[in-house]
Amino acid sequence: MMSRGRAALASIRLADSLLSSRRRTARALWTQVSHSSPSPSLPSTHPRGFLFNRHERFRFSTKPDSILDLVAANQWSTELESQLGDLSPGLSHETVVYVLKKLDRDPVKASGFFHWASGRDGFCPSSSLYSVLLRILGKKESMKQFWFALKKMKEQGFYLDEETYVTILGAFKKEKMASDAMGLTHFYKRMIEENGRDSVVKKLVELVLGKAWSSEAEKALADMNIAFSDTMVIRILKELRNYPAKARNFFDWVGRCPDYKHNVVTYNAIARVLGREDSIEEFWGVVDEMKSLDHEMDLDTYIKVSRQFQKSKMMHDAVKLYEFMMDGPYRPSVQDCSTLLRSISATEKPDLDLVFRVARKYESTGNCLSKAAYDGIHRSVTSVGGI
User: Fold this and answer.
1) How far apart are CA 320 and CA 215, in angstroms?
2) In terms of Cα–Cα distance, which of 251, 331, 291, 266 is closest to 129?
3) Residues 98-143: tens digit of each pLDDT
4) CA-based torsion, 150, 192, 297, 136: positive or negative
5) Which of these, 354, 333, 329, lies nearest to 344 by C-alpha position?
6) Are the CB atoms for 240 and 221 separated by under 8 Å?
7) Does residue 133 contact residue 117 with C-beta atoms inside 8 Å?
8) Helix, strand or coil, per DSSP, at residue 74
9) Is the pLDDT of residue 55 over 50?
10) Among residues of the chain, what percentage have pLDDT more than 90?
11) Cα 291 to Cα 363: distance, rounded to the nearest angstrom
């Protein structure tokens, strides 16, 4: 009876706290909209005029969300491309990943956005971006776009990594897409055969794993006289993913090479490798480095690392990472919030403080918790109370 009473009291306090937070958020947003909005008026009949007014009215929304809203609300056209150009004169890797991940249920539109972004001056796609796109396009209804993207990726010198290949191949087999599965396998094998850099990567990885890290090991790497690219660095880090300490050593070493400089793409790659229990200090160290360099963690990296934390029952790190992302421009979705709450509730002794932190952080950004999120909270409370 005492445990039931404590659980009920905790549930009441949680609900009251969240309700108060929601009311404060609603008042703050109403004040913000009221002070920043122009006088109400009918939108222009021209779609561009309507979208411009909509963007102005909600100008407190983040820029990535403004781009996403524009793409999601319109059919792909030259007019849409013109509006996107006006809205986003410059694009970052993180922004493109964010929009693609949010469009994962609309593969045709995701394809249109990716190829538009890739043609923009000053923006260069990467093997990581192609991996995100190909996983989205690997569906029956978007195979035309899938094979086109795969062809473009090869033409631009990018590499289909083993993890992406295996994931897509599994999806093809599950959907009984036998001819596409066979075609993808032939493409992957031919790509490996034709890519002379593959042997260089294997030799470098063998060298890194074959001896303890030292000045001697660094000299041996330097003597290989490799011209590093982002694609090659990402491939090497993936090959070293089960050896996070060696991956970090290599990452630091290649960053000191005179002809190579890390960027947001490679920082996200090393973050994915280090996001595990035996290298958690190094992971947060990389996150701090990224912040100091104004690099953002992209949404694909967040999702992969968060899933690993949750799978390993590293709930404190999962919540800390969620809070970090929610404070930035590339916020996780309500589904990510619900999944995290369910993971917390599924632990042997759910930590209600973590539940509070997730719920409050989500609502502090102006969102309302979904039924699925509340179900996760309820499971956590009742688990602690023994109901």
Assistant:
1) 36
2) 266
3) 999 999 999 999 999 999 999 887 788 999 999 999 999 999 999 9
4) positive
5) 354
6) no
7) no
8) coil
9) no
10) 63
11) 24
